[in-house]
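Q: What would this chain look like folded?
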Amino acid sequence: MAIVAPGKRYGARLAHSKVFGHGPHGKKEVFSDLNVTPLVDMFVILVLFLIANFSATGELLSMSKDIQLPEAAHTEELTLAPVVQVSLSEVIVSGQTIGRVDDLAREDYLNIPALEERLREMKKQFEDLHNQAGDSGAFKGDVNIQADKQVQFRIIKKVMFSCASAGYGNISFATMAAGAEKKPETAMR
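A: My prediction, written as structure tokens:
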């Protein structure tokens, strides 16, 4: 038998405890070094990203790079309604292309049949949805026109006539508020 230096003697009850390191689990060290600083930095960046991308009121217009809105001094807030975008090249309703402005300018008709048809479909969907839900909210006929400031008036006139013929009589034009903060708002009803 080897000669060993005498150490502390624990009682029989403590000889196999985890605290004094002599038990069956005493050799396992359950210590993990976790650096919290990068974790906190990541969560701060995530929160800032979510705050920057969240809008409580929601975006009513999708700003297109090929449409420059005119400026207006007296404006009101836009309401949620279908959006008719009129750029220098094409007419779009809620993301669906209706026609090219060059083709519409050549026609002598006062209306745009494809635009009327699409708006009537949207009106029917609105009414069907509210009838199924049992909602008595009547169709108001609101529409937002987002037109480039260089578009010819006869194109705007055709768009307005088509909207009115389809049952959308409350026409609002999207403009930029003339002031410090450039935010799309309606200028005219």
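Helices lie at 36-53, 101-106, 113-133, 153-165.
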